[in-house]
Design goal:
The protein is globular and about 70 Å long. With 372 residues, the protein is an alpha/beta fold. The longest helix is centred in the middle third of the chain and has 17 residues. The model has no long low-confidence stretch (mean pLDDT 94).
Length: 372
């Protein structure tokens, strides 16, 4: 088959979220594919770390960049002398119109529940373009059963039109003592710490986390601190306001943006990762934490329960006492070792190779079906 891919999310320097997903999926598709020919479409030349071109992996670079998915890409596809069998998008947005069957990837529908977190322009584009992609899709990739069920309920899409392809997680790099020392010094982390990892935005529920940690400190006189690692997103003012209200600024450390190396170092050296989100599509940091041997405390929301099962401590993300108890529990030696063991087993299933193989299987099934 000739398969097109929108590679722009992967072709950026600072990859987070969908960018990480697209990049690692492309690397694994490039490594594992032996029979399909992939055409990767970009607005700008591929970065040095993108998969190298070869006869089965070809890059196409063109503009104009403005409204590229809506104008430049569809026009280019229609002007091709040969037609693609499929066009895959690692994001919500597929080219439309398209002469080839399209397959968008839906990571979550959280934006429909948090409209106030977006500008009117961004919200309009996200909802309108996603709906259009879904309406014209031949098939749809969801990153979890939770997201698949959300699509069925919200957009009335038949279940057999959606395939679940779980996210993968990279293998942790070696972390030497020098890296650890430099990272901890950079962020002025001198005490044992709990870690929250992710962009500062409302769905991460950081005010709740800060209030709960403040209550924990009141009950447990210790020198521990809370590190919140992530860049500022939107509507983050309440987070810093809560730190002031709880009067614990010396116990809360904000790192802002962190590198991949710093992320793995912080995960390796924390007491536990804490993810108290009110909404997630998947929760990649939880699996990253488990892969490096660190226990996880997670909100008892459906997608995290689906991914983690019994390998984490679950808490009610609206009840501080629930989290306070979990912060105590995760430090008990027997319970801690149990969580590490379960987490190691659970996280081994989530690799980018497995994700790519699942996706290739979807492509093959569509190819063998009656005309797409």
């Amino acid at each position: 088959m000739f398969i097109g891919i929108d590679g722009n999310e992967a072709n950026i320097n600072s990859r987070v979220g969908v960018g990480q997903y697209a990049y690692h999926l492309l690397l694994s598709l490039h490594r594992l594919n032996h029979k399909h020919t992939f055409h990767i479409y970009l607005k700008s030349p591929p970065l040095p770390d993108m998969p190298p071109a070869n006869p089965k992996w070809q890059y196409h670079i063109f503009g104009p960049t403005k409204l590229w998915t809506k104008i430049a890409l569809p026009l280019h596809l229609y002007l091709r002398s040969d037609r693609l069998d499929l066009f895959f998008s690692p994001s919500h947005y597929s080219p439309h119109p398209s002469p080839s069957p399209t397959i968008p990837t839906i990571h979550d529908l959280g934006y429909l529940k948090t409209q106030s977190q977006f500008t009117k322009k961004d919200f309009y584009q996200l909802t309108t373009w996603t709906k259009q992609s879904l309406q014209h899709a031949t098939h749809i990739i969801a990153v979890s059963e939770f997201t698949k069920n959300d699509l069925i309920t919200t957009y009335k899409i038949p279940a057999n039109k959606i395939s679940v392809v779980y996210n993968g997680v990279s293998t942790p790099p070696p972390i030497n003592p020098t890296t650890t020392k430099n990272t901890l010094q950079k962020f002025k982390i001198h005490n044992p710490y709990f870690l929250a990892l992710g962009t500062l935005k409302p769905s991460k529920n950081y005010p709740f986390l800060i209030k709960s940690f403040s209550l924990y400190l009141q009950k447990h006189q210790s020198n521990q601190c809370l590190v919140i690692a992530g860049k500022k997103g939107w509507l983050f003012e309440e987070i810093f306001k809560t730190v002031t209200e709880e009067n614990c600024p010396d116990r809360i450390i904000f790192t802002d943006y962190i590198t991949e190396e710093e992320k793995w170092c912080l995960l390796k050296n924390t007491i536990s990762l804490v993810i108290p989100s009110t909404y997630e599509g998947f929760g990649i940091p939880t699996i990253e934490s488990q892969k490096i041997g660190t226990p996880v405390i997670a909100a008892n929301i459906a997608p995290l329960q689906e991914i983690l099962d019994k390998s984490a401590i679950f808490v009610n993300p609206t009840q501080p006492e629930s989290l306070v108890q979990a912060l105590f529990e995760v430090q008990k030696p027997t319970r801690r070792q149990q969580l590490i063991r379960l987490g190691t087993t659970k996280s081994a299933k989530f690799t980018w190779n497995n994700s790519a193989l699942s996706l290739l299987s979807v492509f093959d099934s569509l190819s063998s079906a009656s005309p797409i």
